[in-house]
Design brief:
Elements lengths: L4 E6 L9 H17 L4 E4 L13 H11 L4 E8 L5 H14 L4 E6 L4 H4 L6 H19 L4 E4 L4 E5 L13 E5 L4 H9 L2 E4 L6 H5 L1 H14 L9 E9 L3 H8 L3 H11 L12 H10 L3 E4 L1 H15 L4 E5 L6 H14 L11 H41 L1
Parallel strand pairs: 1-2, 1-11, 2-3, 3-4, 4-7, 7-8, 8-9, 9-10, 9-11
Antiparallel strand pairs: 5-6
Helix pairs in contact: 1-13, 2-3, 3-5, 6-8
Length: 392
């Protein structure tokens, strides 16, 4: 297995009514924590309504997070490009690419909350029809073209970038997908990455995994592009603790608020989560196969299940949430870094396998080697006794 990357997909999800300033600071502190734990990526969402997903500009948030971190790559997860002039989307990302020395990534989507797009006079059909148009313009600009175009929302006249990206030929780009083949088609057409946000959130999303990558490959071949599974990212749900009982107790803190947001507030039917009380919610996550609430063994099994269903992918992104309090949430990420990531990193022989094999080898030889050690001590002791006797 190649090195599987790990990261988060941070919408974020904060209960409405609480202090937004402190919530945003918690988000920044989480990114710092993940950077120290050697997580690879963090993708930051864009939303403008409903009071829960409170980051309006992932680009501004990324600029702040980049100054607090050293290694972790930071992506827009996603920029709702149909809300913006595509020229300015490209310009802002090129600026971030320079400011972060190549740690910025662009995730593209139509926008998930209808209450966002309605304020711009756009309905969900409009945003989905605009998505491929705007992405095509962004890609042309990044490739150095001068673009004149008229879209439903914007006019471009001899538009061009006045800076080249820091990353050549450009920073990483990924297109969001839930269950339909629209995202995979666009990813293949442009030879960019795929963000399977609905990969584990619905049965349809899980069942469509292998089909999605087939669509990416087919469209890439048809358009003379090359694609690699390392650019495919799957988003899933997890919370782990030292025991299942502790994990279940941890999520009593906030899982119900998270479920009610999708059940009662957000008009996002792709997140059709089920559960009337906390127990039913935990059972839904675990038994429907959409995630893992439990131990590191449960988390490893879920990643392996996704690997086998998909045929292989490049990054496992954990959908960030506040099911547990901040301390338990950070501990969950620590446990995943300590006990899950090593089983999927290191190459054909993973980091976990290498040390476990070394331990097994040493354990098998311990009795013989211990006897040899004792014999060596006895031999040297006797040799010293003989030397002293000869001198006397």
């Amino acid at each position: 297995m190649d090195r599987l990357r790990f990261g988060i997909f941070l919408a974020p999800f904060h209960p409405a009514g609480e202090n937004p300033t402190l919530a945003l600071q918690r988000d920044l502190e989480l990114i710092e924590h993940l950077d120290r734990l050697d997580y690879d990526e963090a993708w930051i969402g864009e939303h403008h309504s409903a009071g829960t997903e409170i980051i309006a500009s992932p680009e501004i948030f990324i600029a702040a997070a980049a100054e607090r971190t050293k290694h972790i790559k930071l992506g827009t997860g996603v920029t709702s490009i149909t809300y913006h002039n595509p020229l300015w989307v490209a310009e802002r990302m090129v600026l971030l690419d320079h400011l972060t020395r190549g740690r910025a990534m662009l995730g593209c989507g139509p926008g998930s909350l209808p209450t966002d797009s309605m304020m711009l006079g756009l309905d969900p059909t409009d945003t989905r029809e605009l998505l491929p148009v705007d992405l095509d313009i962004i890609m042309r600009l990044l490739h150095g073209e001068t673009v004149t175009a008229q879209t439903k929302t914007h006019t471009l006249v001899n538009a061009r970038l006045h800076l080249r990206p820091y990353t050549q030929p450009h920073f990483e780009i990924a297109v969001a997908a839930v269950a339909s083949p629209t995202g995979p088609k666009m990813a293949g057409t442009h030879g960019v990455g795929l963000l399977s946000i609905g990969a584990t959130l619905t049965k349809d999303g899980f069942d469509a995994l292998s089909h999605h990558w087939n669509v990416v490959q087919e469209r890439a071949e048809a358009n003379g592009k090359t694609v690699d599974r390392s650019a495919w990212r799957l988003v899933g749900l997890m919370h782990v603790a030292e025991t299942r009982e502790q994990a279940y107790k941890d999520v009593e803190y906030g899982i119900e608020t998270w479920f009610r947001y999708f059940q009662k507030t957000a008009a996002f039917p792709q997140m059709a989560v089920e559960g009337g009380d906390v127990k039913e919610m935990i059972d839904f996550i675990n038994e429907a196969g959409v995630g893992a609430i439990g131990t590191v063994e449960d988390a490893r099994a879920q990643v392996q299940r996704l690997w086998e269903q998909s045929g292989g992918f490049g990054a496992m992104l954990l959908l960030a949430h506040e099911w547990a309090n901040p301390q338990a949430t950070k501990r969950s990420y620590e446990l995943i870094a300590q006990h899950v990531m090593p089983h999927f990193q290191g190459g054909a022989l993973t980091h976990a396998q290498a040390t476990l094999q070394a331990k097994e080898f040493a354990s098998g030889k311990r009795e013989d080697y211990a006897a040899a050690q004792m014999q060596a001590v006895a031999t040297m002791t006797e040799r010293y006794r003989q030397e002293m006797a000869a001198k006397g």
